[in-house]
Design a protein that fits this description.
Blueprint (H helix, E strand, L loop, with lengths): L1 H8 L18 H14 L3 E4 L2 E2 L6 E2 L17 E6 L24 H9 L8 H10 L10 H8 L3 H12 L11 H13 L4 H13 L1 H5 L3 H8 L3 H14 L28 E5 L8 E7 L4 E4 L1 H7 L4 H38 L1 H5 L10 H8 L3 H8 L3 E3 L5 E3 L8 H13 L6 H10 L6 H10 L22
Helix pairs in contact: 3-4, 4-6, 5-6, 7-8, 8-11, 10-11, 15-16, 17-19, 18-19
The structure holds a DNA duplex.
DNA sequence: CTATGGCACGGATT
DNA sequence: AATCCGTGCCATAG
């Protein structure tokens, strides 16, 4: 939409009409594309060659060089603007390769579509898209097949075929209609690589004794199956360890989508935070990736030629020059804002950057806007749809720094992990209150659900249905 | 009667 | 102005 906006205004834009262009909204990758287009279309705009560090030769947007520079005296974060790394972020230093094992964040539906795409016929594609869109946060399909078929005007058999493709795609168990079904699908995937002994009993239990399994009533299952209680318990342990009723959360841990609110993919990074010189406790170093390596300006020759040319051409060329100046200025402004924004974030959320989710401090965009003396919407735009890499390899959307409840959720997770006997929501709320966090009981319930933790009355000392720990 | 989940309202945030 | 988030109230399940 931004691009079309550009086209509409191309010939009428004048300096007094538009003082800024909304570069801030764009991610670095998007901006790069926009700028390249601008460079191609506007002869008055010029990209000046990039700088290189006199010491290490690394390409820079501006001096000093991030890797060679000295840290700031007071230990505050150092913020640099550096040329964007091509495509996915990768350390050039071999020793860091392992530490930077970065999994490109991807939406669940894209992930699945990539796998099943080749097997789909043209006619099935809309149906597949529909089904994927209907998956809930856990990766389950809450809708009944006949309804889906009716809604899409297709035969139920077609739905079944596509659904079966989805169910055999990577996060095992995804696309099932109930947790029970999901478990069974996962079991089948597992059966291919495991001894059939355990899987057979596990399947029976899941199929015919699902309720009792949830309540951990092993005695009853054992009685009905006429098996020793130990076997049943072993099977339950097997299920607990290897299966999860929330297939999507194995990779999409916190239930929040790894994409920005606007739905833009966070494939490319906009900044990276590391610890200067990898020194323990050292100051943070932030690299804000610039969309181009070099800077933009109005071509001096073009400007000079403007005065000598004919009346008729003056107008169009004059517009080009003005626009070029505008683009250059706006880019500069965006870079400036991004650097200051990252500076504050690095200062404010140092603990979170170095630690974990529990260390996130409450922070609002409005507050930053105030300290920076800009309008709130400026910060909103700057934050939207951007991602940053943290020292430990995590890639988080910028908006995560403003998540009001992340640290509380983390606390809830810990409380439940450490609990001796199942805590009710009320008890959890009280415990949080003692830690100084006043949270309503109802809110605890919401967080619990987000974390994929079942209610206390279904939970017992060994929770079966807790999703396995996600990569951390 | 207790613990939860659904709905929806109001205030804060964007 | 639109959206998100915490919370209170009430129905329901155990």
């Amino acid at each position: 939409m931004f691009v079309s906006h550009l086209h509409d205004n191309r010939h009428q834009i004048t300096a007094h009409l538009a003082k800024t262009m909304s570069f801030l909204t764009l991610s670095t990758a998007e901006l790069e594309a926009t700028l390249i287009k601008e460079l191609n279309d506007n002869p008055a705009l010029e990209l000046v060659e990039e700088l290189r560090c006199p010491n290490c030769g690394k390409r820079l947007y501006r001096l000093p060089c991030p890797t060679c520079a000295a840290p700031s005296a007071d230990g505050s974060p150092v913020v640099y603007l550096s040329p964007r790394e091509p495509r996915n972020y990768r350390s050039t230093e071999a020793e860091n390769d392992e530490a930077l094992d970065i999994r490109t964040p991807e939406r669940l539906d894209e992930h699945i579509l990539r796998q099943i795409g080749p097997a789909l016929t043209r006619a099935e594609r809309p149906l597949a898209a529909y089904l994927l869109a209907r998956l809930d946060d856990d990766g389950l399909l809450p809708e009944a097949i006949p309804e889906v078929a009716a809604f899409n005007h297709v035969h139920p058999r077609d739905v079944e075929r596509v659904l079966s493709l989805i169910q055999h795609a990577d996060p095992p168990g995804v696309g099932a209609q109930t947790p029970q079904e999901s478990l069974l699908i996962q079991l089948e995937c597992l059966a291919e690589v495991t001894t059939p002994l355990m899987t057979k009993l596990a399947r029976t239990i899941i199929q015919h004794h699902f309720e009792a399994l949830g309540k951990m009533d092993y005695a009853r299952i054992a009685r009905q199956l006429r098996l020793p209680r130990e076997s049943v318990e072993a099977a339950a342990r097997f299920i607990q360890r290897n299966l999860t009723p929330y297939p999507a959360r194995v990779f999409w841990g916190d239930g929040k989508h790894p994409v920005g609110n606007d739905g833009a993919a966070l494939r490319d990074l906009d900044a990276s935070i590391s610890i200067l010189n990898r020194a323990e406790g050292g100051p943070l170093m932030v690299e804000v990736f610039a969309p181009l390596s070099g800077w933009l300006r109005v071509q001096p020759e073009f400007k000079a030629a403007l005065e000598e040319c004919a009346e008729a051409e003056q107008e169009t060329w004059g517009a080009a020059v003005e626009r070029a100046a505008l683009v250059a200025k706006c880019l500069q402004q965006r870079n400036h804002t991004m650097r200051r924004l990252m500076q504050i974030i690095a200062e404010e959320q140092r603990d979170f950057i170095l630690g974990g989710d529990g260390d996130l401090r409450p922070l609002t965009r409005a507050k930053i806007a105030h300290t920076l003396g800009v309008h709130e919407s400026t910060i909103s735009r700057a934050v939207a749809g951007k991602a940053v890499a943290l020292p430990d390899g995590r890639i988080v959307p910028l908006s995560k720094f403003f998540d009001r409840s992340l640290s509380v959720r983390d606390r809830v997770r810990h409380l439940v992990n450490e609990e001796k006997s199942p805590l009710t929501d009320d008890q959890i709320a009280a415990a949080l209150g003692e830690q100084g966090l006043q949270v309503a009981r109802r809110t605890v319930a919401k967080y619990r659900k987000m974390l994929g933790i079942l209610p206390a009355n279904v939970r017992s000392r060994q929770e079966i249905f807790r999703p396995r720990p996600v990569r951390s």
